[in-house]
């Protein structure tokens, strides 16, 4: 009996030791550092001018969004219930960019943006939500989104939901860490370990992930997805 109990206890200890490694093993690098395998681009202006080149490329092991022409780099696969860890920086003059989660119908807004929830990367606004034909709620909605009668998800509506903090971003040229957790119908966002947004009652729970080309050159050196069952503290 003692030997059996000893074996059981040993197996439990081994299991506890290996558990974190099992969690880590589920993580997936969405960017392999070499090419854009697993992604595809949607650049509307390239439909009209075949001489245009995609704004998305790999340079010195980094995924780069040149900013122009405008469009999106989109994962081939759909995802749900995950943490997305991204490191990014503005390569030159800071400006606009974003990460879209729960992306689906292409060009659903302004014949450019896929139906999604955008997590803003725009300089000094990182962590804002933008509703793109999908919707999400936060605490203090009228304070952070504006008059309720003007809320909406299409071109002429109030779609921006401001983040909770100021000064979360690092100086231009330094690498920022942004963590996005999507779980069921809620989304949490951290910028450099500060919680900057928490939305709930989202109208989508799964979809593709997209990176934007929206006017400014941005470099990405980490895009890692990990399945989750609970939110981080």
Strand content: 25-35%
Would you tell me the overall average pLDDT?
92
CATH topology: Jelly Rolls
Major sheet? 8 strands, antiparallel
CATH homologous superfamily grouping: Exo-inulinase, domain 1
Q: N-to-C terminal Cα separation, in Å?
A: 41 Å
Number of strands: 15
Number of structural units classed as domains: 1
Question: What's the helix-strand series?
Answer: HEEHEEEEEEEHEEEEEE
Query: Gyration radius, to the nearest Å?
Result: 20 Å
Low-confidence stretches: 13-24
Give the second-level CATH assignment, the architecture.
Sandwich
Provide a descriptive summary of the structure in words.
- It is built from three helices and 15 strands.
- Mean pLDDT is 92; it is low at 13-24.
- The protein is globular.
- It is α+β, with helices and mostly antiparallel strands and 233 residues long.
- It has one domain (30-227): Jelly Rolls (Sandwich), CATH 2.60.120.
- The longest helix has 25 residues, at 2-26.
- The N and C termini lie far apart (41 Å).
- Helices cover 15% and strands 35% of the residues.
- The strands form two sheets. Strands 1, 3, 4, 6, 11, 12, 13 and 15 form an eight-stranded antiparallel β-sheet that branches. It has a seven-stranded antiparallel β-sheet with strand order 2-5-14-7-8-9-10.
- It has helices spanning 2-26, 44-48, 141-145; strands spanning 28-29, 39-42, 56-59, 62-65, 71-75, 82-90, 98-103, 116-120, 129-132, 160-161, 176-183, 186-191, 194-199, 208-213, 218-227.
């Amino acid at each position: 009996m003692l030997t059996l109990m000893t074996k059981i206890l040993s197996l439990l200890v081994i299991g506890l030791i290996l558990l974190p490694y099992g969690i880590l093993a589920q993580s997936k690098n969405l960017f392999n550092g070499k090419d854009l395998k697993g992604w595809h681009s949607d650049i509307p202006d390239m439909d009209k001018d075949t001489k245009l080149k995609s704004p998305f490329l790999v340079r010195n092991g980094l995924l780069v969004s040149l900013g122009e022409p405008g469009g999106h780099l989109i994962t081939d696969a759909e995802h749900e219930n995950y943490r997305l860890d991204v490191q990014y920086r503005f390569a030159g003059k800071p400006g606009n960019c974003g990460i879209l989660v729960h992306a689906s119908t292409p060009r659903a807004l302004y014949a450019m943006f896929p139906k999604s929830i955008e997590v803003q990367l725009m300089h000094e606004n990182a962590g804002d939500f933008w509703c793109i034909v999908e919707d999400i709620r936060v605490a203090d909605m009228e304070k952070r989104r504006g008059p309720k009668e003007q809320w909406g998800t299409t071109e002429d509506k109030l779609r921006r939901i401001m983040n909770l903090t100021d000064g979360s971003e690092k100086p231009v040229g330094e690498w920022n860490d942004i963590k996005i957790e999507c779980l069921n119908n809620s989304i949490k966002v951290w910028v450099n370990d500060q919680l900057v947004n928490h939305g709930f009652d989202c109208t989508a729970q799964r979809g593709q992930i997209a990176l934007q080309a929206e006017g400014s050159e941005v470099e990405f050196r980490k895009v890692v997805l990990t399945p989750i069952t609970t939110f981080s503290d």
